[in-house]
Write a structure and sequence with these properties.
Length: about 375
């Protein structure tokens, strides 16, 4: 999930502030709040047993689209400094500085969350917990838990099941400087060639369907390979393409993009997108979901990223996302993502007294937010990057 490309990361990633406005960054922070709330809601729906309940259940399950939105944001915000340097013939961002700021942004809150989860579940029993071991702790702390066979039965830890996406995010951080070098130095030969860059990005996006075909047709890869970066690279590329389009003065209109995103969402919420699971078992379902999610997430972010040469905003949509409540939630969206499953389990068992797969999804969602938001603010307050 861009779980890390917050508005206050602008300076950290190499000068994005030179091509943006304060309000536009605020709106991108606000869309992070939407992504985080969608993730919490889809997990509340799963926990209360809504997934198997027909089309409505599939609609709830597809709210995992919050993760692709985070990934598109990462692709856009983190690739933009390299694009801006190429477009202005300026110096490329420092890889050392970029790496340090990524570690500084991600790890403090993450380490605190992992240690807290292991402490909580040392005293709580919430079903099978194969990841609750010393090796599991090491794997989760280093975000290497997905690089194994039998992932679900090896290192999956209660309260940290969502962290597969953070492992993918970190893998993208590692890959991005290499991708930027290949695209802007090797392919474009250090010149600003936007058409060639866009063609290169389209080729990179094809890695995802190729990887999905591979992992669904061979048996020598570990089953965790379905959760590795290549399978989700197209989502990051959606944001990278937005970064490549911005210097061209392209404008994306919310009145066009958002209805298209809604239509695509309703389509992928049919059985065409497969069963309500992160990684569909059938190749066709996995390919369809991957493509639709890339389109939907890119369309949602595009009106906030592509504002034309005038640098203006796209009306109500951007203003709503730039509002104080949305920016507040967006600022702590990473921390909400980190801790919400632990707090959700506590709320469900200790406050609502729901047996698993029963109860009101909306009460669980609201109760989880009531507990999570203050804790997320505290975690953010003490682990945030201070500029």
């Amino acid at each position: 999930m861009s779980l890390s490309a917050r508005s206050d990361d602008v300076d950290d990633v190499g000068g994005l502030e030179s091509v943006t406005t304060t309000r536009r960054v605020a709106s991108l922070t606000g869309i992070r709040a939407v992504a985080a709330l969608l993730v919490v809601l889809t997990h509340a729906a799963y926990t209360t047993g809504r997934y198997p309940q027909g089309y409505a259940g599939l609609v709830f399950s597809r709210m995992e689209i919050g993760v692709p939105i985070f990934f598109v944001l990462s692709g856009y915000l983190l690739f933009a400094p390299w694009v801006n340097a190429a477009a202005t013939a300026g110096p490329a961002p420092s890889v050392r500085r970029y790496t340090w700021h990524r570690v500084r942004r991600i790890m403090p809150a993450y380490v605190v969350t992992v240690l807290a989860a292991y402490l909580v579940y040392h005293f709580r029993t919430a079903g099978p917990n194969p990841g609750h071991s010393w090796e599991g702790l090491l794997r989760n702390l280093t975000l290497t838990q997905i690089y194994t066979d039998d992932y679900l039965y090896s290192f999956l830890h209660q309260g940290l099941t969502q962290m597969w996406s953070l492992a993918v995010e970190v893998a993208f951080y590692v890959a991005l400087p290499v991708l930027a070098y290949l695209l802007l130095v090797v392919l474009c030969r250090r010149r600003w060639q936007p058409r060639l860059l866009l063609a290169g990005l389209m080729a990179v996006a094809l890695v995802s369907p190729a990887w999905l075909i591979l992992v669904h047709t061979v048996d020598w890869l570990p089953d965790g390979a379905r959760l590795w970066l290549p399978g989700y690279l197209a989502w990051f590329v959606g944001g990278m393409m937005l970064a490549a389009l911005r210097p061209l003065g392209v404008n994306a209109y919310a009145l066009v993009c958002l209805p298209l995103a809604v239509v695509c969402y309703l389509i992928v919420s049919t059985p065409i997108g497969g069963e309500p699971t992160t990684s569909p078992a059938e190749l066709r379902d996995a390919l369809v979901k991957s493509a639709f999610y890339a389109v939907i997430a890119t369309l949602v972010v595009a009106p906030l990223a592509l504002v034309g040469r005038g640098g203006g905003q796209n009306g109500l949509y951007a203003r709503l996302l730039a509002s104080r409540p949305m920016v507040f939630l967006g600022e702590i969206s990473y921390e909400i993502f980190l801790i919400h499953l632990v707090t959700m389990e506590v709320v469900m068992v200790e406050f609502l007294h729901y047996p698993i797969y029963t109860g009101s999804v909306w009460l669980l969602f609201a109760g989880t937010l009531v507990v999570t938001v203050p804790l997320a603010w505290v975690l953010h307050r003490f682990t945030r990057v201070r500029v």
